């Protein structure tokens, strides 16, 4: 968004009556981002939305009306519980290994989770725990194997896949659902290392897929993320890519691979105080040609975007109460104006305040409840 568009959004939110911090999503920009995602993702690959990055059911619905998806990647018990309750058919690939006690609770409250959830297994010990749970419940559990394909944040080496897949197949209540390999490191490495790491990652994923039983049809072979999903083709070993954050494009997702996407989410919060020429504590005798503003709340995982040319105060430091920003003396800003920040990430930020304001055509068109973290 350019400065004029940010000012127009701020004015619209003030007219709407925003009087506390809230997340805002611009549906026009989100719409355009969905068009880009459909264009750059290989049409032969399934697309799975990452729910933690888009933690609001109306937001997910808006996107799913525009992007055909195979299901959601879900990361927490509260969010999975909420989604299992309201959506009877959505397939969930768990994005991180959950303690087996969490799975036991979810199966107690939602027995249908056995059919709809792919539980992520990162090591032999966890596999044993989940197979024991399946035996105890006499319920078949869908188990997907987490692969370490270069990120080195846990998961199993591709060389161990065949053994664990055989162990699942031999168990009366074990069902191999697929594999998941995350490779967020690829987009962050310098060019001199990136090509080599990409080849190693692809080799590891291919080796793991080749080790899966040949008689297993319909396996979920998931990889990718918001910075890398564009690089996969249906001719490869993966049949599904995952992404989410790029559709609202927080600051951490500014990258060469995402230049076609626009930031679509903001934190909005009222300006409480405007202090032109504000003196520095202890240095009141020095003239100061700056304006300080104090906003409602603060210490958000976000960067100031509006009013233009304002940034966090190096004098007052970060604050969760009345965070101070510093900008030009000539700034046109008044108490009650709405300050805007661009989130660094969408995960744990979009649902921070419980509600998302949906904006289209410069007007608030909906107040959407968020999912729990």
Automatic annotation (TrEMBL):
Q: Where is the signal peptide?
A: none
Species whose genome carries this gene: Ruegeria atlantica
Named from the GO MF annotations, one term is: D-serine ammonia-lyase activity
Upper lineage: Bacteria, Pseudomonadati, Pseudomonadota, Alphaproteobacteria, Rhodobacterales
What Gene Ontology terms for biological process does this UniProt record contain? D-serine catabolic process
Q: Write down the SUPFAM superfamilies for this protein, in alphabetical order.
A: PLP-binding barrel
State the name under which the record lists this protein: Putative amino acid aldolase or racemase
Boundaries of every Alanine racemase N-terminal domain copy? 113-248
* Classification via PANTHER family: D-SERINE DEHYDRATASE, ZGC:162816-RELATED
């Amino acid at each position: 968004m350019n400065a004029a568009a940010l000012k127009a959004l701020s004015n619209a939110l003030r007219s709407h009556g925003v009087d506390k911090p809230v997340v805002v999503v611009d549906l026009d920009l989100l719409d355009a981002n969905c068009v880009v995602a459909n264009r750059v993702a290989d049409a032969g690959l399934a697309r799975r939305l990452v729910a933690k990055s888009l933690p609001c059911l109306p937001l997910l619905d808006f996107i799913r009306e525009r992007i055909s998806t195979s299901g959601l990647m879900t990361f927490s018990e509260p969010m999975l519980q909420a989604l299992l309750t309201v959506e009877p058919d959505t397939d969930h690939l768990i994005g991180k290994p959950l303690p087996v006690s969490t799975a036991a609770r979810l199966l107690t409250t939602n027995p249908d989770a056995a059919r709809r959830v792919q539980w992520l297994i990162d090591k032999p010990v966890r596999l044993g725990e989940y197979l024991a749970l399946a035996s105890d419940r006499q319920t078949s559990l869908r188990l997907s194997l987490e692969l370490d394909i270069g990120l080195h944040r846990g998961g199993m080496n591709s060389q161990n896949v065949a053994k664990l897949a055989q162990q699942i197949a031999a168990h009366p209540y074990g069902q191999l659902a697929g594999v998941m390999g995350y490779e967020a490191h690829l987009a962050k490495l310098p060019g001199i290392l990136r090509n080599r790491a990409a080849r190693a990652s692809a080799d590891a994923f291919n080796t793991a897929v080749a080790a899966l039983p040949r008689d297993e049809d319909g396996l979920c072979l998931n990889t990718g993320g918001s910075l890398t999903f564009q690089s996969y083709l249906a001719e490869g070993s993966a049949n599904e890519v995952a992404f989410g954050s790029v559709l609202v494009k927080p600051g951490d997702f500014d990258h060469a691979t995402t230049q076609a996407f626009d930031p679509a989410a903001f934190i909005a919060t009222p300006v409480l105080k405007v202090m032109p020429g504000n003196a520095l504590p202890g240095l009141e005798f020095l003239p100061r040609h700056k304006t300080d503003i104090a906003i409602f709340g603060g210490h958000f995982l976000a960067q100031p975007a509006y009013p233009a040319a304002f940034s966090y105060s190096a004098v007052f430091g970060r604050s969760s109460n009345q965070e101070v920003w510093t900008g030009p003396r000539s700034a046109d800003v008044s108490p009650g104006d709405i300050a805007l920040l661009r989130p660094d990430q969408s995960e744990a930020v979009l649902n921070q305040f419980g509600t998302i304001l949906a904006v289209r055509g410069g007007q608030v068109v909906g107040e959407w409840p968020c999912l729990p973290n």
